[in-house]
Design brief:
The complex is a heterodimer of chains A (236) and B (223). Chain A has 236 residues and is α+β, with helices and mostly antiparallel strands. Chain A has a single domain, classed as Oxidoreductase, molybdopterin-binding domain (Sulfite Oxidase, Chain A, domain 2, Alpha-Beta Complex). In chain A, the strands form 2 sheets. In chain A, strands 2, 3, 6, 7 and 8 form a 5-stranded antiparallel beta sheet that branches. In chain A, strands 1-9-4-5 form a 4-stranded mixed beta sheet. In chain A, a hairpin with a 2-residue loop joins strand 6 and strand 7. Chain A starts with a helix and ends in a 19-residue tail after the last strand. The longest helix of chain B has 28 residues. Classes of the chains: A alpha+beta (236), B mainly alpha (223). The interface between A and B is large, with 40 and 41 residues.
Chain lengths: 236, 223
């Protein structure tokens, strides 16, 4: 009798524990084995997305009246902590598989040929915003500095410690630009002055601001948010 | 009286695998989807964290400065393969074996209303292995809902590579709204489905073991 009650209590306890774990997924999600399994699927998804990506398919563009003037500021710290880079001291450093590694000044960068796009910025969190950006196709820049465009990746480092990277096909996509202007004005400080890389075929976090170093490599570089569990390729 | 007659329900192994894999996939997709939704709600409410999937928020905040959204997204984009695979198996089996034609057909507005009224007044007899018109309509409905979830999900995932699909939903935000609406429909279906299983537990037995039988009830007068 007592044994029976024990068994029932155990059974009930086990059931509710199981239900709880299933519902919250707490223990489940935080276990290392689950993390590793999810990371493996995420790497597989990188390959699927790279296969889905087309180097010639353009992101939809919009009438510039739809472009948001007061663009959302987004980082893991408040806007007043954002890097303040100045024209006098700023340099863009180049590294890796690039022939001419001479650093670039703001003036030199802004002298490059530019084009304008009105595209949708999609954040991994779910919000989206249409913006008007003006700048140089990254492809033009990479060709000008003699980058090895047969290499696999382009990576970058930023003044706030951020780091990200993309696959070469995305770097050579005609809409991937070094954006010097937002809504026809020189890129404001909190949005990444002197430039951000605008990639309308990637989620927002793959679009770095305050870029200070750009490098070309065959080894997949890490990314700030991918190191925190987000998908690496993050194409849209 | 038909005292010796029995009703029987049989489910092929493939159907049972497809059923339980979809059940698991839907739990994963809804749980992780609610956590993702909570980060940027489209309606003025959030889902209770305890019903969401994505790990303890404190744990992920300390591990990676992220409120479990990365984890939820990882679950979501792993769960999509399970859902897609199980759903294709279900559709493939249902079409090839004739299960859909035999069990879910015919269904029309007349029989639907007749059975709905009967069910609402507790006059609808349940015969194991036979789906009434309301059930049939529900199964077609949930199949449609899963198709819409997959389509709107792809539209949200790939608004550039599949821009035509996103445009069909009226744009990125439209796709998010549709994704939310059909999620609600599936959760609603799940609630009714579970309530009916609780009323007729033999159906659970057949979905687990593959078969169940029960003595036939005498038909109610007038049927």
């Amino acid at each position: 009798m007592i044994e029976d009650m024990e068994r029932r209590r155990l059974l009930r306890g086990g059931l509710s524990m199981g239900a709880l774990t299933l519902l919250t997924g707490c223990d489940l999600s935080d276990s290392n084995a689950v993390q590793q399994a999810l990371a493996a699927v995420s790497r597989w998804n990188d390959r699927v997305q790279a296969a889905l990506f087309s180097g010639t398919r353009l992101a939809p563009t919009f009438d510039e009246r739809l472009a948001v003037k007061n663009f959302r500021y987004n980082a893991w710290y408040p806007a007043d902590k954002a890097p303040k880079l100045t024209e006098d001291t700023y340099k863009l450093y180049l590294a890796g598989l690039i022939h001419d590694k001479q650093p670039w000044t703001v003036q030199q960068l802004y002298g490059l040929p530019q084009e304008t796009q009105v595209t949708r910025h999609v954040c991994v969190e779910g919000w989206n915003m249409i913006g008007k950006w003006t700048g140089t196709p990254l492809r033009t820049f990479l060709e000008r500095v003699g980058a090895d465009t047969t290499a696999r990746y382009v990576g970058y480092e930023c003044a706030d410690g951020y780091y990200e990277a993309m696959d070469m096909p995305t770097a050579l996509h005609p809409q991937t630009i070094m954006a010097f202007k937002l809504s026809d004005e020189i890129l404001p400080q909190k949005y990444g002055y002197p430039f951000k890389i605008r990639i309308p075929t990637k989620l927002g976090f793959k679009n770095p601001k305050w870029v200070t170093t750009l490098f070309v490599t065959n080894t997949q570089p890490r990314g700030f948010w991918p190191d925190r569990g987000y998908n690496w390729f993050s194409g849209i | 009286m038909s005292g010796e007659a029995v009703h029987e329900q049989r489910h092929h192994l493939l159907l049972r695998i497809a059923h339980w894999a979809q059940a698991l996939a839907i739990l994963i997709m809804v749980g992780s989807g609610w956590r993702i939704y909570n980060q940027e709600p489209i309606l003025p409410f959030r889902f209770p964290v305890m019903f969401t999937l994505g790990g303890g928020i404190k744990a992920t905040l300390s591990r990676s400065n992220d409120p479990g959204v990365a984890n939820a997204i990882a679950w979501h984009f792993a769960g999509m393969w399970l859902l897609g695979g199980a759903f294709l198996l279900y559709l493939g089996y249902g079409i090839v074996s004739g299960h859909f034609r035999r069990s879910y057909w015919p269904v029309g507005p007349k029989s639907f209303i007749r059975d709905l009224v009967a069910a609402a007044t507790f006059k609808l007899p349940h015969t194991l292995g036979v789906y009434n018109a309301v059930q049939r309509a529900f199964y077609w409905g949930v199949i449609l809902a899963v198709i819409m979830m997959i389509a709107s999900g792809l539209a949200i995932w790939k608004p550039v590579q599949l821009a035509w699909l996103t445009a069909l939903f009226g744009g990125f935000q439209g796709a998010r709204v549709v994704h939310f609406l059909f999620m609600s429909a599936i959760v609603g279906f799940l609630g009714i489905h579970l309530a009916l299983v609780a009323l007729v537990p033999k159906t659970l037995q057949s979905m687990v073991l593959g078969h169940a039988r029960e003595a036939a009830h005498p038909a109610p007068a007038g049927e």
